[in-house]
Automatic annotation (TrEMBL):
PANTHER family given in the database record: PROPHAGE INTEGRASE (PTHR30629), PROPHAGE INTEGRASE INTS-RELATED (PTHR30629:SF2)
Protein name: Site-specific integrase
Domain called Core-binding (CB): residue spans: 75-157
Span of domain Tyr recombinase: 189-383
Family: Belongs to the 'phage' integrase family.
Pfam families associated with the record: Phage_int_SAM_3 (PF14659), Phage_integrase (PF00589)
InterPro entries, alphabetized: CB, DNA_brk_join_enz, Integrase-like_cat_sf, Integrase_catalytic, Integrase_recombinase_N, Integrase_SAM-like_N, Phage_Integrase
Keywords on record: DNA integration, DNA recombination, DNA-binding
Amino acid sequence: MARPRTPIGTYGTISIRRQPSGRYAARTRYRDWDGKSREVQCTAATRPAAERELKKKLAERSLFHPGFTGMSADSAFTALVDYWLEDMELEDRLSRTTRQLYERNMRTLVLPFFQDVTLREIGVARCDYFLKQLAKQSYNRARQARVVLRLALGLAVRHEILPRNPMDHVSRLRRPTRSPDVFTWNEITDIRAAIRDWEKRPILAGPRPDGQLGQIVEVMLGTSARIGEVLAIRVADLDLDAAVPMVRIAGTIISRKGEPTHRQDHPKTARSVRRVALPGFALRAVRARVRSLRFVGPETLLFATRVGTPHTTNNVRRQLRDVMDQADIEDVTPHRFRRTAVTAINDIGGLQLASELLGHSDPAITREHYIRRNETVNPATADFLEQAFGRAS
């Protein structure tokens, strides 16, 4: 019967001998991570010190093994980043857009702080300090950095390069208290007037504006859709002759590095696919746009360049910003139209309806990130309290 082997990470009797130099050498046989037994030695000025150093080395030895990745706890953080990016490509679980976003956040936010340290040197204190310093500049940057740093170090734990993920113990990021910014009715009026004046201005050279910018704004405000979702609307997604005119939000515009801008056949999430009734002002904008199309087919984009290619979201944002700068109107962004529309729905129809309009799976997301809180309590409370505590005159 074969004798059972000692477990990995165990060692035998420690022998200590004095060397000709006067120092003491402590030795033992250690069963390493690959199952092979190797001699491990440490030297020190005294016998007890040599034994302590050897035991310390043995306790840490499991962190030195290169594993299947060729990395150890003494590898540079940059080596882990390269392997993490490669692992995301091989796993192919995330969309290419998300992978590019993660890579950008890792290279711009995390690497500048960690590029000169080894994996062994990345502990809870270092991670906690990094996130707090970044949060002083921007909460969103700190949040994005926390995601990718946790994922990369989590990969190191799964591949037994590190014993634990230090990101599991960092303190929570505190979101700054602020109310989502929405447009007032007067601001919407000013924005519409500014776009109308810009589209009707005298043109000395180049093509005249074709009205798309104003129509895009009306559709964003009338559907609460993301800018990429509005730019991805096709003729096939429109049902303008129904008793209740509808638009189907079923795609988004993608602009990836090294790839042409194209329409993706689904929005941000599967829940985001939805049919939205068009209010009158948005319906008028859509019909005006359809009438101006040179070619109308099911796959024809409602909003496109003069050669029929998709608009990039960045170009629409830039054009909107330029027009607002000329009119001295500040803080006009596509996402603010989304928050404005859904806040109006929440005030009139309630949170659940507002969440459905946005395509959110959880109304809490809608309440926390999109809706400006109404500070006015229902005046009926005054009547109830008068009934309870008021004095008869």
